[in-house]
Amino acid sequence: MDLKEKLLSSFMAFEERVDVTADLHNIRTEAIKNFENKGFPSKKEEAWKYTSLNAVLKNDFSVFPKKENALSYAEVKKYFLHEIDTYKIVFIDGIFSSFLSSTTHDGLDVCLMSSALTKPKYKEVIDTYFNKIAKKDDSLTSLNTAFAHEGAFINIPKNKIADKPIEIISFSTGNEAALMVQPRNLIVVGKNAQVHIIERHQSLNSNPVLTNAVTEIFAHENANVDYYKIQNDVQTANLIDNTYISQKRDSNASVHTFSFGGNITRNNLNFFHEGENIDSTLKGITIIGDKQHVDHYTLVHHAQPNCESHQNYKGIFDGSSTGVFNGKIFVEKEAQKTDAFQQNNNVLLSDKATINAKPQLEIFADDVKCSHGCTIGQLDDDAMFYMQSRGIPQKEAKALLMYAFSNEVIESIKIPELKNRINKIIAMKLGVSMGFDL
Amino acid sequence: MLSIKNLHASVEDKEILRGINLEVKAGEVHAIMGPNGSGKSTLSSVIAGKEEYEVTDGEIFLEGEDIGELAPEERAHKGVFLSFQYPVEIPGVSVTNFMKTAINESRKAKGLEEMPANEMLKLIREKSELLEIDRKFLSRSLNEGFSGGEKKRNEIFQMAMLEPKLAILDETDSGLDIDALRIVANGVNKLRSKDNAVVVITHYQRLLDYIVPDYVHVLYNGKIVKSGGKELAYELEEKGYDWIKSEN
Q1: What is the mean pLDDT of the segment spanning A100-126?
Q2: What are the ABC transporter domain coordinates in residue numbering (chain B) (predicted)?
Q3: Span A369-387, mean pLDDT?
Q4: d(CA A294, CA A238)
Q5: DSSP output for A221-262
Q6: What are the helix (H) ranges across chain B?
Q7: Higher local confidence (pLDDT), A33 or A17
Q8: What does pLDDT average to over chain B?
Q9: Are A355 and A324 spatial neighbours (Cβ–Cβ below 8 Å)?
């Protein structure tokens, strides 16, 4: 039985296992129908031209997590931002781990999707926001919606500044020979509220994992949301991330995606504007090698006047790795005075590495500022010689150049400890130790 | 200090250096002059170890050791310094961090511990004062958006930090106004000692008023065609390079 059939036949059993409200049942049923019609995306689709899931889908994934596999904090401490105090929502093989988590209902809700979906006190929030911006006609998003049950639920009420960052971490233990998980996150940030969120998926051994995640984020008037995705997983882990962000007027939302690991990683990142004077930031650093593959598929939908978006993606590709950047900016007729910026710079360190870059600008307003730039280059020989002539060995010189190349993205990380961590991961990726942080 | 014997070098199969012989002793300043395209910059790059130049014949010795096969960083660790004609811009790396890395890599190669941070700061302060460099300048990205004069001053600042045995100044005077020229030359003169040597590569005699050479060599068509004392520089300035061209 292939994975699609397995998922379809599991659906009824799944719905029997979890609590179902009538509304939720309808949403899920609709979603599974859409997935049934569309199936997994193939390379024949324009949006998936450069990313093939075929090999991954051949794994015999378990689609239901069986039991919680306990982990001690010491085993996984390094994956947390342990230098500072954070709220934590932790999942082990798709199941919530209360032991590793640190949730709250004190002034803000940092808790579980499974309880939000079923408890009466969250009904209004769920009715208002759940599955409202996730794309209904996208097969993988639909698949997630059909099985939507567990994930992070974060609700920051108006005027509330979250007192510490929130970490959402999903561990896979290898308890199953191959595991598919589908976390579903909902994040609502009220008027004038602020929050920093860090998301990470981490396998603890080399059994194949497929994560198909959907995150919906709502940033209300003048809200500030900074979201950081750390993708530094083992090379048997695959991630399809579908993130949808809706912004109201005067809000700021940023998503930083650090893609250093994994086998196949696909980031579908979508921003929708529902008011004026909105600021959206999409930044990423990709550093991969071997046969790794990272695909960034971004959309910024400018629907209102006087909004800004800033995209800056840096990629460093070694070995036979492949990268994709597909960045779409859509400016509607009403969205006058839009200022949309998109930058994508890539360095290929090996002859076998590939990058496919495709900026797409669709502009229907006439008074806008839209710019995009894309570069693909090799390491600058003159810069290398310059640094070597100062006594910096080739490997360190290369690392320093790569650091410098990524620095524009690193410097906008607002949590200093996270910035440190990212610097360290980059140094590790480049095989050097740096005596300073850039 | 530096001994070059019958050096031939090519780039992309085109021979640029055609048998250079040069002896530079500790404590000396040598000037290498010549018209454009004579091979001056190639010579400095070859001494520093740039890989795209292929040494087809001859040898380069530093303090009696053959350095011809060494990587650029290894030559730097042994005390070779090249002040670039066109210093490379490296956005995202500050002057300070660049120097920290360079100095500590050099120390690492010599089996020394990293320089303690306070010592490093003191050294940076001392050397930046020598070159009249503003402290704000040190936190800027290396060479990015620097004026011509700032770039050259920064090169000599790096030289001061690294204290090389052999410093090669490739067209350090180009793009400098007279004040910057004086500061740069003053910096170089203060760094001179009986234990190090300087090779000044220049098109014009002007710099040599400030950094006075013991010997002047004229490079033409990849060979040293004339050598003499500092008066040779004046003679060249007066007669122009056509004088050399007509004789060769």
Answers
A1: 94
A2: 2-246
A3: 92
A4: 10
A5: TT-EEEEEEEE---TTEEEEEEEEEEEETT-EEEEEEEE---
A6: 40-48, 72-77, 95-109, 117-130, 135-138, 148-162, 178-191, 231-239, 242-247
A7: A33
A8: 91
A9: yes
pLDDT (tens digit per residue) in A387-406: 999 999 998 898 888 888 88
Question: Which one, of B146, B53, B91, B72, lies nearest residue A386 by Cα?
Answer: B72
pLDDT band, very low/low/confident/very high, at A54 (cuts 50, 70, 90): very high
**A438 pLDDT tier (thresholds 50, 70, 90):** very low
pLDDT at A198: 98
Question: Rounded to the nearest 5 degrees, what angle is found at the Cα of B22, between the Cα atoms of B20 and B26?
Answer: 155
**A315 vs chain B: nearest CA distance in angstroms?**
16
Confidence of residue B205 (pLDDT cuts 50, 70, 90): confident
CA proximity to A311, closest of A272, A277, A342: A342
A385: nearest CA in chain B? B50
Interface of B with A (CB under 8 A): 45, 48-52, 71-73, 75-77, 80-82, 84, 87-88, 90-94, 97-98, 100-106, 109, 114, 141, 158, 162
DSSP state of A46: G
Question: What pLDDT does residue A437 have?
Answer: 47
Residues of B in contact with A385 (CB under 8 A): 45, 48, 50-51, 72
Nearest residue on chain A to B76, judged by CA atoms? A391
**Element of type H or E holding A150:** none
ipTM for the whole predicted complex goes beyond 0.85: yes
Token pair recorded at residue A429 = 């990726």
How many angstroms away from the CA of B89 is the closest CA of chain A?
8
User: Looking at domain B2-94+141-247, what is its CATH homologous superfamily?
Assistant: P-loop containing nucleotide triphosphate hydrolases (3.40.50.300)
- pLDDT average, residue stretch A243-251: 98
Q: pLDDT tens across A123-144, in order?
A: 999 999 999 999 999 999 999 9
Cα–Cα distance between B38 and B32 in angstroms, integer?
11
Domain boundaries, chain B: 2-94+141-247
Determine the residue of chain B that is closest to A410 in CA distance.
B92
Mean pLDDT of the residues in chain A:
93
Question: Three-state SS across A263-280?
Answer: CEEEEEEEEEEECCCCEE
* A263 Cα to chain B: minimum distance (Å): 30
DSSP A66: -
Q: Are A370 and A331 in contact (CB under 8 A)?
A: yes
Question: What mean pLDDT is predicted for residues A196-208?
Answer: 96
- Contact between A208 and A178 (Cβ < 8 Å): yes
In three-state form (DSSP H/G/I as H, E/B as E, the rest C), the secondary structure along A82-139 is CCCCCEEEEEECCEECCCCCECECCCCEEEEHHHHHHCHHHHHHHHHHCCCCCCCCCH
How close does chain B come to A410, measured CA to CA in Å?
A: 10
Whether the pLDDT of residue A275 is over 50: the answer is yes
The single-letter DSSP state of residue A161 is: B
Count CB-CB contacts under 10 A for residue A110. 27
| Element at A5 (helix H, strand E) | helix A3-17
